[in-house]
Design a protein that fits this description.
The complex is a heterodimer of chains A (300) and B (515). By secondary structure, chain A is of the alpha/beta class. The longest helix of chain A has 16 residues, at 3-18. In chain A, the strands form 2 sheets. In chain A, strands 1, 2, 3, 4, 7, 8, 9, 10, 11 and 12 form a 10-stranded mixed β-sheet that branches. Chain A is built from 10 helices and 12 strands. The model of chain A is unreliable at 19-24 (pLDDT under 50). In chain A, strand 5 (146-150) and strand 6 (158-162) form a beta hairpin. In chain A, helix 8 (207-217) crosses helix 10. Chain B is mostly helical and 515 residues long. In chain B, the strands form 4 sheets. Chain B has a two-stranded antiparallel ribbon. In chain B, strands 3-4 form a two-stranded antiparallel sheet. Chain B has a two-stranded antiparallel ribbon with strand order 5-8. The longest helix of chain B is centred in the first third of the chain and has 29 residues, at 135-163. Classes of the chains: A alpha/beta (300), B mainly alpha (515). The A-B interface holds A 79-80, 115-124, 128, 180-182, 199, 201-202, 204-207, 234, 236-240 and B 27-30, 188, 363-364, 392-395, 431, 437-441, 443-451, 455, 471, 489-491.
Chain lengths: 300, 515
């Protein structure tokens, strides 16, 4: 324990002691190291770093209970193979599916509403194969299952969203970090575009607000941002290996704004420079100020 | 087992194989399909011959079609009687129609030869319209563009409606059946085609003619039947009638190909479908089939003059079809966006048999049958209609299923350098350009490795005098491949603000855009 850690814990203890209700949780917190806000894990095995990130956040049982129907929502938007970094890394998705089952999940669903042909996206991304092998139910989106949901957001009054994500017991977001022409980057919050039905291209007219509007409705218990390979140009679809940067990293957290804010730094920009992150912070969806967060970095 | 029972089993087996391969003509997300889906077309000697004449080149399946030729020379029109899936459909329709006496004059059997000579003569003068009437092309096309889409549309609607009924069990049953049909019979997307009605109408007429006379098509119209008839004039399989014949006329009434008529002993091998119905039905057991060399009885070949006339008509049709300004690249052909890997228009038309395989397999449903966009000669040839479906950047299935090489098979790597057109932005309709509203969908979905759609930040002033920046898209014509993904996804519907035309397609020298 270094001095900073000691001070933090002492202060925490003082604060907690002043409100008796939290004494019990304090006792737990004291016994184990405190759970960080973000876990940033780097290492050569996508599977191992995913597992380490979830463990660092308190383990999968913190997020998934026995019998839960869990949706693990990757980005399967494009007809690209994994090395191009346009879709979530299949091993990251599969690792999360496995973890969910280890926590006793009853069913794990993996789906996305892709931009390119769904058959090619599911297959070429490697996600359908990997997730199915891990035991997930991988189905194509059924257009009949979009239900119009009241959002009362900044840009969207209502929008058809996918029933299965609304009805799931737990939702885990597994986006991939990429550049994007209009919104600069696409990270966690923008991944919910994949559960939007209808003519979703219209949201480009107010893309940042719309992203936050949907992110306020679809609340994941956990976001695992795949930065094993990030796409630094020609995103979100890519297609050139020279635009792909291998970071061998995942960023995990429970606050979607924090995860995206950290994700921005992988591209050398500040979270607050992304409109959706700033709006998410200002509307109280989450915290973008990384300097106030407990970030644990792990090398595997 | 009686030989006719065996024939029925073989016929049904081939029909089921044909339908199975037809259903498999659909992407599962891989670069290949896993089945030889165009197998029947590969065996079609008429496709081989007419393509050989029109393009002076061989079709990929030429060895298989040669085997069909050899089989016919020895065995006669067994293909028609035992294998042809359209023939089996006629057989079934004929049974449904009941027994009917021939109503057409005997000489009508010549018609199919006239049609054949017309088509081959046109082919010789480089115009390939054989596919309109070739039975296998006709069948695949009719199923792909019309029958199967209608089947799927109808049953899906039925299941959906049944699912909404407030009756116990019914919704679950409908959902279960819907899932089953999706797995076994349906395309991934509900297919929709322009020209569905017309292609279906032709098919309906062809099958419906069985109600005039059974196997009407095979007897009087089928050009492939005519070609096989010519080849089987000296086939070894021969029919004989022994002394015991009582002239009861059963064989003549049963005959499917109208190879025998009033006189039981009269028989034409060129018309015989080798169905063995006469052998089976003869009450006195006098009809026999056996193998021996020699001439195959009377033939119904048309006379020299009428052959010459049909040859001349076929030749004369070529310029009539072609005195049409649109056949020159760039005149009317802006919307004539051909599938990737298509040969230059003239060579493409010389090979395309309008079988519809490419349209069936097209992953986005974007390949559609042309009507008159490319002239009458190009009727029902494939064109990409991006508002219906774009060309999926890494998909190469259309070239893989093409039976004649009109669309070359490309590897995904090769395809990246093939340009089928160029996208142009309509600044008066584009949201950022025309109204200062952010959009940039075209840039996002542009699939080329270095995006062909790029943007710059521009300053716009609104009517209240407010100033803001908006990202405005532009097309880099050197990188655009004309896939139409941008047009398909453009939020400006009706007439999208970014549209692809064939300009700049790499298959054409005349239609070049850049120096």
């Amino acid at each position: 324990m270094d001095r900073r850690d000691f001070l933090k814990k002492t202060l925490c203890a003082a604060a907690a002691a002043s409100c008796p209700g939290t004494l019990l949780s304090l006792a737990e917190g004291w016994a184990a190291p405190p759970v960080p806000d973000l876990a940033v894990v780097r290492g050569p095995s996508p599977e191992a770093i995913t597992r380490a990130a979830v463990d660092a956040l308190g383990g999968i049982r913190r997020f998934v209970s026995a019998g839960d129907v869990v949706v693990v929502k990757p980005n399967i938007g494009w007809d690209r193979t994994p090395e191009y970094g346009a879709n979530t890394h299949p091993a990251v998705v599969a690792a999360l599916v496995t973890l969910c089952f280890e926590a006793g999940a009853g069913k794990v669903k993996v789906f996305d509403r892709p931009v390119n042909d769904p058959r090619r996206c599911y297959r070429q991304s490697g996600i359908a194969g990997a997730a199915e092998a891990a035991g997930a139910e991988v189905r194509y989106v059924d257009e009949r299952k979009f239900k119009t949901v009241k959002l009362d957001g900044l840009a969207l009054k209502d929008w058809p969203l996918y029933e299965e994500i609304l009805e799931a017991d737990r939702v885990i977001n597994v986006p991939v970090a990429k550049t994007h022409g209009l919104s600069t980057l696409t990270l966690g919050m923008k991944n919910w575009m994949g559960v939007m039905g209808g003519g979703r291209w219209l949201i480009h007219q107010r893309v940042h607000e719309s992203i936050v509007d949907v992110a306020r409705r679809v609340k994941p218990v956990l976001t695992v941002l795949d930065a094993v390979r990030i796409l630094t140009a020609n995103g979100p679809q890519g297609g050139r290996l020279e635009d792909v940067k291998v970071l061998d990293t995942v960023v995990a957290g429970t606050d979607p704004v924090s995860v995206d804010s950290f994700g921005a730094t992988l591209f050398g920009i500040r979270g607050r420079d992304l409109e959706s992150v700033r709006i998410g912070h200002e509307t109280g969806l989450g915290n973008m100020n990384l300097d106030t967060l407990n970030i644990r970095r792990i090398e595997r | 087992m009686r030989i006719t029972t065996a024939r029925w089993l073989v016929q049904i087996a081939f029909l089921l194989l044909f339908l199975f391969l037809f259903i498999q003509t659909e992407s599962k997300g891989d670069d290949t399909l896993g089945y030889p889906v165009r197998l029947f077309l590969d065996f079609d000697p008429l496709v081989l011959l007419s393509t050989l004449l029109s393009s002076r080149g061989l079709v990929p399946g030429f060895l298989l079609s040669l085997s069909a030729v050899v089989a016919t020379v020895f065995l006669g029109r067994v293909f028609c009687g035992w294998i042809c899936p359209l023939g089996t459909i006629h057989n079934l329709a004929g049974i449904a129609a009941g027994r009917r006496k021939p109503v057409l004059p005997p000489g009508a059997r010549k018609w199919k030869y006239w049609i054949l000579f017309f088509l081959l003569s046109s082919s010789l003068f480089t115009m390939q319209v054989t596919g309109i009437l070739d039975p296998l092309c006709l069948l695949v096309r009719s199923l792909a563009l019309s029958v199967h889409p209608a089947f799927q549309n109808g049953f899906a609607a039925l299941f959906r409606t049944a699912g909404d009924w407030p009756v116990p069990v019914l919704p679950a049953l409908a959902e279960g059946l819907h899932d089953l049909f999706r797995k076994l019979f349906f395309s991934f997307r509900e297919p929709r085609f322009f020209q569905a009605v017309f292609t279906g109408l032709l098919f309906g007429i062809v099958v419906g003619l069985n109600f005039v006379e059974k196997r009407f098509w095979c007897r009087y119209l089928c050009p492939l039947g005519a070609l096989l008839g010519l080849l089987s004039r000296k086939a070894f399989l021969k029919r004989s009638v022994s002394e015991g014949c009582t002239d009861c006329g059963v064989c003549g009434r049963a005959c499917q190909g109208r190879a025998t008529g009033g006189d039981a002993r009269e028989w034409a091998s060129s018309e015989c479908l080798a169905c063995f119905d006469c052998d089976d039905l003869c009450p006195s057991g006098s009809v026999r089939f056996g193998f021996r060399p020699g001439k195959g009885g009377r033939s119904f070949l048309p006379g020299r003059r009428s052959v010459l006339a049909s040859l001349l008509a076929g030749a004369a049709a070529v310029p009539f079809f072609r005195v049409f300004p649109g056949s020159r690249a760039g005149v009317l052909s802006g919307k004539l966006i051909r599938p990737p890997g298509s040969l230059d228009e003239a060579d493409f038309l010389a090979r395309c048999v309008r079988c519809g395989e490419c349209m069936k397999v097209c992953i986005t449903n974007g390949l559609q049958p042309a009507f008159l966009e490319g002239g009458l000669e190009a009727l029902w040839t494939p064109v990409l209609v991006p508002s219906v479906g774009y060309c999926e950047y890494r998909c190469t299935l259309c070239g893989r299923v093409c039976p004649t090489g009109a669309i070359k098979p490309l590897s995904p790597g090769e395809k990246e350098s093939v340009r089928i057109g160029t996208a142009f932005i309509d600044f008066g309709r584009c949201l950022p350009h025309a109204f200062g509203i952010p959009c940039l969908v075209c840039q996002e979905v542009c699939p080329t490795a270095m995006k062909a759609v790029w943007f710059e930040k521009g300053i716009v002033t609104d009517r209240e005098g407010g100033v803001r920046t908006v990202k405005k898209p532009y097309v880099d014509p050197a990188r655009c491949v004309g896939c139409g993904t941008c047009e398909h996804n453009c939020p400006v519907r009706g007439e999208p603000a970014i549209r692809v035309v064939s300009t700049g397609e790499s298959r054409s020298k005349e239609n070049r855009l850049l120096l």
